[in-house]
Amino acid sequence: MLSLAALSLRLGAAGCRGGRRSMATVISGNKTSKLVRERLKKEVEKMKSQFSGFRPGLVVLQVGDRDDSNLYISTKLKAAAEIGISANHVRLPNTATEDEVLQSIASVNQNPAVHGLIVQLPLDSVKPIDTERVTNAVAPDKDVDGLTCINAGKLSRGDLGDCLIPCTPNGCMELIRQTGVSVAGKHAVVIGRSKIVGAPMHDLLLWSHATVTTCHSKTPDLPAQVGRADILVVGAGKAEMVRGEWVKEGAVVIDCGINHIPDETKASGKRVVGDVHYASANQRAGYITPVPGGVGPMTVAMLMENTVQSAWRFLQKSQAGR
Ligand code: GUN
Questions:
Q1: Does residue 284 sit in the same domain as residue 190?
Q2: Residue of the CA atom closest to atom 11 of ligand 1
Q3: Are residues 138 and 176 in the same domain?
Q4: What pLDDT shows up at residue 321?
Q5: DSSP state letter for 144
Q6: Residues 193, 258: one domain?
Q7: How far, in Å, is the centroid of ligand 1 from the Cα of 278?
Q8: Domain CATH number, residue 277
Q9: Is residue 76 flagged as an active site residue?
Q10: What is the CATH number of the domain that holds 75?
């Protein structure tokens, strides 16, 4: 398949034309995630025929009833069903205690028909629940969110082949690969250090041999840091925080943000934007992800990828134990 880099060379999409800089090449998460999901569907069909009807199993555990979580979960369940993954939604009321949540996780951990378990975040509970304790209770070999200390520790040490990688940064790496731009030797800048996006993104870029700077709320002169990035990944959670003028010419810009801002021209009165000011960054970047349709769909595709991978590992172990 032709990479985006080769395509843009042919089309002259990135770089200067007649002294005026053209727009960045858009990296489509919709298209890339569709390719991933199609590949996974074939893999699951192969599993089914090779292992007498076997299907990977995924459980999404939800505490409470947040509207945004409901939407994300229904997207995940739909993607799983299309691929042939058997997905179940376990819903606990917002009055559930930490012990009840931990018991629920323990029972899924013990179920051999489940190969992936995620606890949808944030927890929507009226009781005090330690999110860290809850996410860490997931069996590391079923931790398809990659949030347990075991998986995070392996990733931080570069044991990429022996862990489950968090879905959003894994999806970002896939989008960067799509550009054809090699990561090794490049200067990568990550904005944000959350356990689910920024910190694992740092690790993935580092072990792909980039020199990585991770910025956060206490980083002085963010524009200067951004200006040094050949590859920029933003997971800051602040609408349109990164301005196009900060971006290095030709950089790869990956926007993990999903923010709702008021927009009177929309029937809903709002619209979704990323953490990067798209219109201005598009004038300077070589490649850029849109919001929506960039990183978001990749997160879902990578959750499916992790579930299928975990199921393969389960089958391998069961074969070896026979
Ligand atoms: N809430 C928003 N994104 C995610 C995700 O990737 N995993 C989980 N568990 N919760 C989320």
A1: yes
A2: 121
A3: no
A4: 79
A5: T
A6: yes
A7: 24
A8: 3.40.50.720
A9: yes
A10: 3.40.50.10860
Query: Listing from the earlier edge strand, what are the strands of the sheet with 86-92?
Result: 86-92, 57-63, 116-119
Would the CA dihedral through 217, 191, 162, 167 be positive or negative? positive
Q: For the whole prediction, is pTM greater than 0.90?
A: yes
Closest CA to 76 of 167, 153, 137, 149: 167
* Residues in the chain with pLDDT values less than 50: 9-15, 17
Q: From edge to edge, which strands make up the β-sheet containing 25-26?
A: 25-26, 287-288, 252-255, 231-234, 187-191, 211-215
Note the pLDDT of residue 19: 54
- Assess whether 137 and 219 both reside in one domain: no
How far is it, in rounded angstroms, from Cα 148 to Cα 16? 45
| Same-domain pairing of 287 and 172 | yes
Of 41, 42, 76, 186, the catalytic one is 76
Dihedrals phi, psi of 103, to nearest 5 degrees: -65, -40
Measuring from each residue's beta carbon to the nearest atom of ligand 1, which residues come in under 6 Å?
A: 72, 118-121, 145, 167-168, 196, 299
pLDDT at 9: 43
Q: Are residues 213 and 131 in the same domain?
A: no
95, with CB counted inside 10 A (0-12, 13-18, 19+), is exposed
**Is residue 193 located within the same domain as residue 82?**
no
Residues 126 and 183 in one domain: no
Measured by CA distance, the residue closest to atom 4 of ligand 1 is: 121
pLDDT confidence of residue 10? 39
